[in-house]
Amino acid sequence: MMSYLVTIVIFVSIAGLVGLALNLQWGLAGLVNFGVSGFVALGAYMVALTAPHLGWLAATLTAALLCAAVSMALSLLTIRLEENYLAIVTIGFAEIVRILLLNESWLTGGALGIADIPRPFASLTPAGWGDGIILVFALVLVALVYGLMEGLVRSPFGRVLRAVRDDATVAAALGKPVLALRVRAFAVGGAVMGLAGALHAFFMTYIDPSQFTPIITAYAFMAVIAGGRGSNLGLLLGAGSIMLLLEATRFLKDLVPSIDGTQLSAMRLALIGIGIILLLILRPQGLVAEPRRTVRDVFPDATGES
Amino acid sequence: MSAAFLEVEGLTKHYGGVAALDGCTLSLAKGEVTGLIGPNGAGKTTLLNALTGLAKPDAGRVTFDGADVTGLPAHRMAARGVVRSFQIVRELASLTVFETLLLAPPHQIGETLTGAMARRRRWWAQEHANAGKARTLLERIGLWRLADQPSARLSGGQKKLLEVARALLLEPKLILLDEPGAGVSPPLREEIIALVRELKGEGLSFGIVEHDMHLVGEICDHVHVLAEGRTLVSGTFAEATADPRVVDAYLGLAA
């Protein structure tokens, strides 16, 4: 049971990292990225290929850098097109990554994947600790990224991204370099998705292309929608509740013996869907509202209305 | 008339087969309020778009403050001090009134990625200084008590005032207003007129596209009448309105 719980916490951490990244790209900057699973896969494979040679830290950083560079290139290619094309191009990107991973078996092992990925601090782990170290690693990673993202959301950088999301023309007329801002937001988001992929690879120690399906993208969007666009705290709550729902519904069959496994797995997704619809009806702004700079933040003594 | 500040020479812009601007030539003087009037479809908004980088002219030249600025992108024009408002107010819906004004000032350290992450203390100090200016401005235009409201919740006239305030924080040299009086209640319109006059007194230059002739007559030192993408008549408001060609243009008889 303990190791099951640890596994869930780590899966929530991975989903949380992916969600935090999408929350910056889409939640804050309004850039639709339907290729999330491609970036996560890229990060995971980069770690799998480099960790045995470079060590875990350098491998993780390489994965983040590669994903940032690819995001940057992709956004520069497409951002000059009309906005919605980014969505289409990112779908294509994820598909290209999937097909490359499957077919370039000299590098990626093809459908067999890559095994024996060394975990961080593996030699230091006392016997019987199991996944303890990787759990700490995951939580520290989430905490670091959360801190970074909170810093960005609450800074003028976050504010100017919200302005670009609301109306890019107005932002440009106010002297803001819209293209450069979008590329930066997309690159930082991509780097964090690479980190999520790295964590995934370290935890599983074995990766293959079937682990990186578009469902990762779907869960990330659900988490951002449920949590509230732009709010990192909401995002973590959203990612957590979706994972909780997914896992908790596993035990439905103990309560309702008349349904079998296949029906259950179909029902679980339906339940998540109903949950999202209810949330959007009852709380359209998501669980937590986007943080805003209020008068009180700057003038603590001000007594404004509202 | 004082020295030309913004000069437009033979500016042309086609949309498909339609020439929205057809060799438009005019100039805006420093420290004055210049009105740009003319019937619908005369090319006024296209001219404003071409002057602020939102439309790339097909031909012609724009010089501002002695430098050639033809076809510069929008954020570059803003950086040079040419700032505009929009005919249909485009507020940043999810930003509060206060945040809208904090957004506007140029050269914010915290708007760069490294600045936001690594130089927190410096951008926070800058934010404080900007907040002080924003507060003064909001008190001046009477929106301070609404500072924490989302700007989407303001009335049409309040949004126009906020747009002018937003433009002011960009440290502009020339403000181009696209129909500041349209859809604004009479008391707020008087407030906008008063604000433009005050700011002109402080040395700012304005270009104003407007259909409300009362407003144009009140605040414009000089007007250009546009018709079919060209300057038809230039002069004082009284001269322009007395010209029979202007009357013809408004009645649809222009050549």
TrEMBL record, chain A:
Keyword vocabulary terms for this entry: Cell membrane, Membrane, Transmembrane, Transmembrane helix
One GO term describing the cellular component: plasma membrane
CDD domains (UniProt xref): TM_PBP1_LivM_like
Tree of life domain: Bacteria
Classification via Pfam families: BPD_transp_2
Compartments in which it is found: Cell membrane
Annotated transmembrane regions: 6-24, 31-48, 54-77, 84-102, 133-153, 185-203, 209-226, 233-252, 264-282
Membrane topology: Multi-pass membrane protein
MF (Gene Ontology): branched-chain amino acid transmembrane transporter activity
Protein name stated in the entry: Amino acid/amide ABC transporter membrane protein 2 (HAAT family)
Organism encoding this protein: Aquabacter spiritensis
TrEMBL record, chain B:
Domain of life: Bacteria
GO CC list: plasma membrane
InterPro entries: AAA+_ATPase, ABC_AA/LPS_Transport, ABC_transporter-like_ATP-bd, ABC_transporter-like_CS, P-loop_NTPase
A family per Pfam: ABC_tran
Entry keyword set: ATP-binding, Nucleotide-binding, Transport
ABC transporter domain ranges (all copies): 6-253
GO molecular function: ATP binding; ATP hydrolysis activity
PANTHER family: CONSERVED COMPONENT OF ABC TRANSPORTER FOR NATURAL AMINO ACIDS (PTHR45772:SF9), CONSERVED COMPONENT OF ABC TRANSPORTER FOR NATURAL AMINO ACIDS-RELATED (PTHR45772)
Family the entry assigns: Belongs to the ABC transporter superfamily.
Record's protein name: Amino acid/amide ABC transporter ATP-binding protein 1 (HAAT family)
